[in-house]
What we know:
It is built from 19 helices and nine strands. The protein has helices spanning about 35-60, 65-80, 100-110, 115-125, 150-155, 175-185, 190-210, 225-230, 240, 260, 270-285, 295, 305-325, 330-345, 385-395, 430-440, 445-460, 480-490, 500-505, and strands at about 95, 135, 300, 345-350, 355, 355-360, 365, 465, 475. It has a three-stranded antiparallel sheet.
Amino acid sequence: MSNISTTTTTTTAEPLTTPPLTTTSPPFPTTPPLSTAAATATAAATTATAAATTATAAAGSDERSTDDLWHMARAVLDANWSRTHTVPSRTLYPHQWSWDAAFISIGLARVDPDRAWQDLRNLFQAQWPDGRVPHIVFDPDVAERDYFPGPGFWQVPQLRPGHPDGTGIVQPPAHALAVWAAYQRRPDARSVDQLRWFYPRLVAAQDYLLGARDVGGGGLASIVHPWESGLDNSPAWDEALAAVPVDLGVLAGRNRHDNRVAAAAHRPTDEDYARFIALALAYRDGGYHDDGLRDRHAFIVECPTFNALLGAAEQALADIAAVIGVDPAPHLRRARRITRAIDNRLWNPRTGLYHTRDVRTGRLGSARCVNGLVPLLLAELPAERVAALITAAESKHFGLSATMPVASYDRTAADFDPVRYWRGPVWININWLLWRGLRAHGRPAQAAELRTAMLELVRRSGYYEYFHPTTGDGVGSAAFSWTAALVLDLLADSSTTVEASPLAQSIG
């Protein structure tokens, strides 16, 4: 690990006054349960969509118009709709994932705002009383054997009558951005009602992360499992994970669903999974309690991407609050404190980007990973940090160019792997966040270049889960929802700048 130490300060999350939670939701059209015939048709549509994706990828680029990209993206999202929510993919991820739902809803809002709202609401129906939003909400129609680890593994207690099955861990808090985006696509009275329903729930999620999960005491949320980062097997976790013994015995009798439907060379290793399962068991067996984590849990890390989204969520909540008549100022102050804390605790001047912090040791990780670029999303990031992050993105380490988006890991590293999940491939969701950051900081040329690179990648290869960072070939699931959804957003918005929230200028 790096021996670089940064300033550590102790902060207290500002309490917020929020409207009371309501149990009823604003009315909007709902999709009826699928009949057996409809379910069969949906499965057939999924197969057809994957085949169309492959066929389109094989065709010459001149044959793939913008209209083709748009209609194919809609087809992917239609095929992956499952009664009340969208699955990331039919084969590999048959339930609802938390930050996937946020990205998916941003794209859905471009074509079907009602479905975007319903997707997000389905996720928040599984929110815990303490505010946490589970990283998976399980579909009761999917058998336990068809996905591991399923609800039988997590053993989450029934939190209230009718509470959906989910996990006890979280994912990056991108949901406020999605709620605000859905409102912006159709800012009518029904959408204002949706904001009123979501606002206290979003605040509760933020309060949980800024309270119980501020294990380091410096104003940032800690993750207790690599799955919480969304970047499951990123090298960003390697040094912290070294404290977790590898016991392949924990996998005995537990069949990895992912390796049955995807190439093992593209997935986390068995050693990775042994550590993942051990950490999940430890947190589960501790009753999912967060008190005393520093002394009893082997993995406690502050992630730049997770906390950048935490800060961006506060800005989105300020915008939401202003619409529904709530004081936005506390959210703006929180956003600024989070930005300062990220800069104080996670910046590495030697590499010119942000790094993970192992809360147990106090040290920054040494790996150059794409999560260290995502604080570019923060509106009030210092100008010198913005410039440094753009330089890093365009360097040999990440390879941003007119033809290729940013890779997920340092291209020059000895263990760079172009096809193994988060250890090298290009991911559209992370690059979409960087695109937003470039626009927010007035970098139109770089924003336009990144947008073009993402669209051309999909135009060449299809709506894959992730992409080879040299050839551009698609890897992972062939009809992946957030890739399709975010391409819809990119196609619908060709502007290269965004206006800063007027609220940010009015609150000192």
